[in-house]
Structures are given as structure tokens and as C-alpha cells.
Write a structure and sequence with these properties.
single chain; alpha+beta; two-stranded antiparallel ribbon; 18 helices; 12% strand; Butyryl-CoA Dehydrogenase, subunit A, domain 3; binds flavin-adenine dinucleotide; seven-stranded mixed β-sheet; 9 strands
Length: 472
């Protein structure tokens, strides 16, 4: 190589860069051995080679021969694989030690126990009940709802978000399972229950000794629940009688209780009840045929003159505004499920792009595939930053309904775009369950629609911006 370079009187110009050098060489490439010309052409992409070429030029014949022998003997290490991880912006760097420890417990559990079976349970639309005891032992709810020395329970939205993201990154249904029990049901009792109700239910919920669900949506009333709940409650002495139907209720097929929201026939206001699933008149059937979050068990509940004690009426829920307070708290968590879903799809697409070859080269070496990966990671980074900031606002007591609605709306929409890119980047395997991205692709559809569809959250933010409610 030295001889060839000297023959062509190539000057190494470090100041103007290796690109100029390569250009000089290539301008004479008709005289070059084609193999050497190909190597020289690569110099344009490999500025670090400039130093190596410079060293080679200084070597005499014996030194070059020694170098050649040593290169021939050396084992060529494959290029180090980039870390496949969602944390492009180093969001996880400064987590409090207790939250970081919970995150690592969650990640280890999800990778070890859930990842290997996630596609199988999804396909069979079954929930891996056998994992609940170990999942409970991770004690994630103590990070999400820390208890102060005086016994006060608070909500750490950042912890909730990071942990939710970790679960969704492997299985969105698992994240929703947590979000229903440890967000909607726990949050309803925390925000709307009396101290006695909190003392009775929250410690057992924290340990997953009782499992909760949240019943707001009805067969004929979804987005319009604010003014349209048809399930009724009527006071009868020290009890209430509930009638109606609830649909889509996560965890309700096997949970111990459902927080049911019903309209009081006396004052027309919405009230909340802790309805134990063993009560006479309560029945539930599993909803089949979902194409998203199939592992999550959704139920269609019928309440036929179910009698609930006054002690189980949420004492601080007096109107739909209280339901909105609960949803305002949990919607940020749904934004984080979207982040985790997108992260799971992106990470798998990146790994696939590194391992799959076409035309003799890894997919990841093609510009168009890189473009998809960059779009994915860019959307992910912006979703994470938005969700994190809204969680921080929530922890500071500054989060308003439109903040959490914006986080949910943007993250769910971007999630849909990320999973579509991930799917596309994997060709046919992108629609095959075996490679998992197909599961994330489908699961994103549920995230897009639940806890306020994209349109409803858009309208919440639109109302905050303009002062005009455009719901009807
Ligand atoms: C997987 C899953 C889990 C769920 N878990 C629970 C749960 O645990 N508990 C619970 O109570 N509910 C749950 N839901 C229900 C969920 O919250 C509702 O699906 C959601 O609120 C939307 O209601 P809907 O499906 O009835 O759609 P609809 O309200 O019928 O809306 C249909 C379409 O019309 C649009 N739309 C409606 N009104 C307007 C308007 N004013 N302006 C413009 N567009 C409008 C909607 O955005 C949507 O695109 C779950 C749903 C899913 C899919």
C-alpha cells in the first residue's frame, strides 16, 4: 500500500481532512488496483483511518511485514453492538435510589418472566395469573404511592411513569393491569375515599391482597360519560341499590372489587361505590375478540339490583368532577404506557435491523432503515420528555387536566407512528407475532382509545386553549 501511495504521490492533508486525501487518490483511481481503490473510497466514511494511514506511510519494509503478520494473527473483534435501550436522553440517570431499585426489579421480572411468554398469552387472550404473586412481591406500589412517616399516602407520578414504561416495554397488557389496579382503582379510593375507607382498602391493595377494577364505561356510553352515565344508584336505608351495565372493565373478570360510577336517582349526581364482585346481582363475562392488549382481561359487567353498603360508597365523590380528578391523575400513566409500547417496538426493530441481513449487509446499514430508526427514536425521545415534564408538574401539584390530556394525546398518537415504523422496518416479520413487534403494533390501538380517546383529549386541550368546549 505504501508503494502504491507513494507512486501516486499522495499527500496526507490532516488539516483539510481525510476526505480530501481520498478524493485526491480517487481522482487517479483509473491507475489504482481496483481493490485498493475500494479501500481508499471508504476513507471518506472513516476519518479515524487518517492516523493509521499516516503511521503506515512512516513504516519501512520490515516494520510493514511485522504489522501485516500481527494483523493476520489478531482475532478481529466484531464491532461493539450499541446498547439497545430506550433511554436515549438519559432520563433514567438521576432517579432517586428507591425508584431506580424498583425499576430494576420491574425490568428484571419482565425480562425473565413475562417476555418469554408474552406472545403466547397474547395469542390465547389469557392472563398469566401465576405471575401475580411474584409481581406483587416487587412492591411497585410503594414507590408509586409512598407512605410518609405520619401515614399520609402521596402519589409519585414520575415513579409511576418510569415503572409503567418498564412494564409496557415488554407487555402493554401488564402495564394496563397495573394501571387499572394501582392507578384507577387505587387512585379512586385515595382521592375520593374517606380516611376510614383508605385505611381499610389501600394497605391490602398495596400488597395485592385484594385486586381492584374501575367501572366507568358503559355499552352505550364511552366518550360521553361526563353527562351520560346510565347506571343508577338509589339509597335504601344504610345501603344503595345499583342497576346497569359496565363494559370494557379491565381486571373485572377476576378482581375482588370494582369501583363503579353510577348516577344517583335522587340528585342526578355521579357517585362512586366499592362493589365487591361476590355480591348477589353482580355478574361479569369476559370480552372476546379483541385485536389489542389481548392479555388484558376486559369484562362486561351486569349490575342487577346489587346492594352496596353506605360504608362502601366513596365518601368524597360527589359529582363527575371527582371522576375527572381520578382520570386526571391516571392519564399521565397512560401516556407512559404509550412510551413503553413505543420503546418496546423500537428496541426490537433496532435489534432486528442489526441481525437481519439483505444484499449481504445488515438492514441497519441501509440509509432508509436508519431513517426509520431515527424517526422512531426522535419521537420516543420527545414523548419521554413530554411525559416526564407532565409527571413532574403532577408531583409539584401544578398539573391541570389539560396537561395530562396533552401528554396522553400526543404520546398515544406518536406511539402509533413509532410502532408502525417498527413494523414496516421488519418487513413480513413485522406482522408475525414471533417477533413481538406485531403485538406492540396492535396494542398501541387500545392505548390510542382508552382513558379518553385521541379526540376527547384533543377537545380537553382545545377547550383550555380557546375557552370554548367543542364536545357537542
Ligand atoms: C383495552 C381497553 C381497556 C379499557 N379499560 C377500561 C376500564 O378498565 N374501565 C373503563 O371504565 N373503561 C375502559 N375502557 C373503555 C375506554 O375508556 C373507552 O373505550 C373510551 O373512553 C372510548 O369510548 P368508546 O369506546 O365507547 O368510543 P365512543 O365514545 O363511542 O367513540 C367512538 C369514536 O368517536 C369519537 N368521538 C366521541 N365523541 C366525540 C366528540 N364529541 N367529538 C369528536 N369525536 C368524538 C371518539 O374519539 C372515537 O374515535 C377500555 C377500553 C379499551 C379499548
Amino acid at each position: 500500500m505504501r508503494a502504491v501511495l507513494h507512486f501516486h504521490q499522495i499527500r496526507l492533508r490532516r488539516t483539510s481532512g481525510v476526505q480530501t486525501m481520498a478524493t485526491d487518490i480517487l481522482s487517479q483511481s483509473d491507475m489504482l488496483d481496483p481493490r485498493i481503490a475500494a479501500v481508499v473510497e471508504q476513507l471518506n466514511d472513516r476519518p479515524e483511518l487518517a492516523g493509521i494511514v499516516e503511521q503506515l506511510l512512516k513504516m519501512d519494509g520490515p516494520a510493514l511485514a511485522r504489522a501485516r503478520r500481527s494483523i493476520a494473527k489478531a482475532k478481529v473483534a466484531p464491532p461493539a453492538a450499541p446498547l439497545i435501550d430506550v433511554d436515549f436522553l438519559h432520563l433514567l440517570r438521576d432517579l432517586p435510589p428507591a425508584v431506580e431499585s424498583a425499576r430494576l426489579r420491574a425490568r428484571e421480572f419482565m425480562d425473565r418472566e413475562v417476555e418469554p411468554i408474552a406472545n403466547d398469552y397474547w395469542e390465547r387472550a389469557e392472563f398469566p395469573y401465576h405471575l401475580i404473586p411474584e409481581f406483587a412481591s416487587l412492591d411497585l406500589l410503594s414507590s408509586i404511592f409512598p407512605v410518609a412517616a405520619d401515614g399520609t399516602v402521596s402519589h409519585d407520578s414520575v415513579a409511576e411513569g418510569i415503572l409503567t414504561m418498564e412494564l409496557a416495554r415488554v407487555d402493554c397488557s401488564f402495564a394496563t393491569f397495573l394501571g387499572v389496579h394501582g392507578g384507577l382503582a387505587f387512585g379512586s379510593i385515595l382521592l375520593c375515599g374517606s380516611q376510614a375507607q383508605q385505611d381499610e382498602w389501600l394497605p391490602r391493595m398495596r400488597k395485592w391482597e385484594v385486586l381492584g377494577a374501575f367501572g366507568l364505561t358503559e355499552p352505550d356510553v364511552g366518550s360521553g360519560v361526563a353527562g351520560g352515565i346510565t347506571t343508577t344508584c338509589r339509597r335504601d336505608g344504610d345501603t344503595w341499590i345499583l342497576n346497569g351495565e359496565k363494559r370494557w372493565i379491565g381486571n373485572s373478570t377476576f378482581g375482588d372489587f370494582v369501583v363503579v360510577w353510577a348516577r344517583d336517582l335522587a340528585d342526578q349526581q355521579v357517585k362512586g361505590f366499592i362493589v365487591e364482585t361476590t355480591l348477589p346481582g353482580y355478574s361479569v363475562r369476559k370480552m372476546d375478540g379483541k385485536i389489542a392488549q389481548r392479555t388484558l382481561q376486559n369484562g362486561h359487567i351486569t349490575l342487577d339490583r346489587v346492594r352496596v353498603t353506605e360504608a362502601n360508597r366513596l365518601q368524597r365523590a360527589n359529582s363527575f368532577k371527582d371522576v375527572a380528578r381520578v382520570l386526571g391523575m391516571t392519564r399521565v400513566g397512560v401516556a407512559w404506557i404509550a412510551v413503553g409500547c413505543a420503546a418496546g417496538a423500537y428496541e426490537r426493530a433496532l435489534a432486528y435491523a442489526q441481525r437481519r441481513t439483505q444484499f449481504g449487509r445488515p438492514l441497519g446499514s441501509f440509509q432508509l432503515i436508519q431513517s426509520m430508526l431515527v424517526k422512531m427514536v426522535g419521537k420516543l425521545a420527545s414523548m419521554q420528555a413530554l411525559a416526564l415534564q407532565v409527571s413532574r408538574l403532577q408531583n409539584a401539584g401544578l398539573c391541570e387536566e389539560h396537561h395530562s390530556a396533552l401528554a396522553k394525546q400526543v404520546c398515544a398518537a406518536q406511539c402509533r407512528e413509532v410502532v408502525a415504523l417498527a413494523r414496516e422496518s421488519m418487513g413480513g416479520n413485522g406482522i408475525l407475532l414471533d417477533h413481538s413487534v406485531a403485538r406492540f403494533f396492535a396494542d398501541a390501538e387500545a392505548i390510542y382509545s382508552y382513558e379518553g380517546s385521541n379526540e376527547i383529549n384533543t377537545l380537553i386541550v382545545g377547550r383550555a386553549l380557546t375557552g370554548h368546549g367543542a364536545f357537542v
